[in-house]
Amino acid sequence: MRKLILLIVAGLAVGALFGHLMMSVPGYWLIRVGDTSVQTSFWFGLVLLLGAFIVLHFALRLLAGIIRPLGRFRTWNSRARNRRAMKRTVYGLVALTEGRWKKAEKALVGAAGDSSTPLVNYLSAALAAHYQGHHEKSQEHLNQAQLTTDGADTAIGLMQAQLMIDRQQPEEALAILSRLDKKLTNHPQVLKLLKQVHLSVNDWEGLRRLIPRLAAQKLIAQQEREQLEFKAYRELIIFEAKNPTNIERVRGLWADMPEYLRGNTELIVLYTEALLQANEEPIAERLLNHSLDNHWDARLVKRYGLINVDAARQLAKAEKWLQERPNDPELLLACGRLSLRTGQWEKALEYFEASQRQRPNGEVCAELARLYASLGEHNKSQLYYRHSVDMLAKSLPSLPQPSDANDSKEGESKKAVKKRA
């Protein structure tokens, strides 16, 4: 009740104030359009404006009420189409996984226009077309993916590279991956695919430079890293050593090689051979000397005995090793050969014979036969030559010989004679 009284009082006060303003503030509105003019009092014109505003407001609300259902219908229709597209996309992805390439491609491409993820549709469709052998169509889908989605260059490039690898086109894949690698340094998937491509094209230099980056990103285990590094350096040394003029390149590879690989016997032998072909025997001798002090291996010992740098010093070093390994047949052979270089024939005979006693060997027999022949002891020379040939014959594969064929023919002739009898 109090609120009603207050409202009535407030209304009367406002009305009285408004009436006072109308009496104390006279004025008029004059609107002229061409030769026509309309004049009205100020307060009546103000009421007309207020009424026009109210009418316009309700008209706009009515119009919005008419338009809103159309917008809602469009939104509903868009969502419905998107749901259908998602169902077809899922169907296409399932078909792709199950190997039904044609159905997968059709479903994925058909749903791409209404899908909220057209990139997924077109990339998957490109893969389905690729599996069908439709390479041009696959590229068309990739191009469409590029048009529908901004910022998808990396995903599309990776897909292209993977498809090129599957098509046995590693050079094209390498070009794509190299471009991506410049743009995205140390991207894990790019690095993995680069490793795969370098191996497929035997790009050992590229692989050698890539390995530290793979390891830094923890994309390869330590064991795989060691295997890849060994293979890369071995193949590079073999390739460069084919031309003796590339010895500086071989030296650079040896210097860049991880420390643990410099103790690998196979790599030491390869590097030694490269040095010898380039007439750098002193460096090769120092390398073998140092390697044998740290890692004993029969192949290195044998190679040490064949190098001719300073035979007397080499023999002294070999005899020092012999004190620690008195029964090493390969070391005894090396000492015999170094003794020959120093002109100590009797000592060479002793070393060769000692090596032969420890392990009978055709190569040692040949050395003894040659030395005895040079000393004029031809009977012993022929004896060791026969031993050498016999040992070599034992290593030959078992194959039919003319004597076996003759024995077989004689047996058949005896059977024929018995049948006639």
From TrEMBL:
Record key words, sorted: Cell inner membrane, Cell membrane, Membrane, Porphyrin biosynthesis, TPR repeat, Transmembrane, Transmembrane helix
Subcellular location(s) of the protein: Cell inner membrane
Annotated Gene Ontology cellular component terms: plasma membrane
SUPFAM superfamilies: TPR-like (SSF48452)
Membrane topology field: Multi-pass membrane protein
The UniProt record lists the keyword Ribosomal protein: no
TPR repeats: 329-362
Stored Pfam families: HemY_N, TPR_8
Positions of the UniProt region annotated as Disordered: 395-421
PROSITE patterns: TPR
Domain HemY N-terminal as annotated: residue spans: 27-133
Membrane spanning stretches: 42-64
Biological process, per Gene Ontology: heme metabolic process; porphyrin-containing compound biosynthetic process
Pathway in which this enzyme or protein is active: Porphyrin-containing compound metabolism; protoheme biosynthesis
Biased segments, Basic and acidic residues type: 406-415
InterPro entries: Heme_biosyn_assoc_TPR_pro, HemY_N, TPR-like_helical_dom_sf, TPR_rpt
UniProt keyword Secreted, yes or no: no
Protein purpose: Involved in a late step of protoheme IX synthesis.
Name under which the protein is recorded: Tetratricopeptide repeat protein
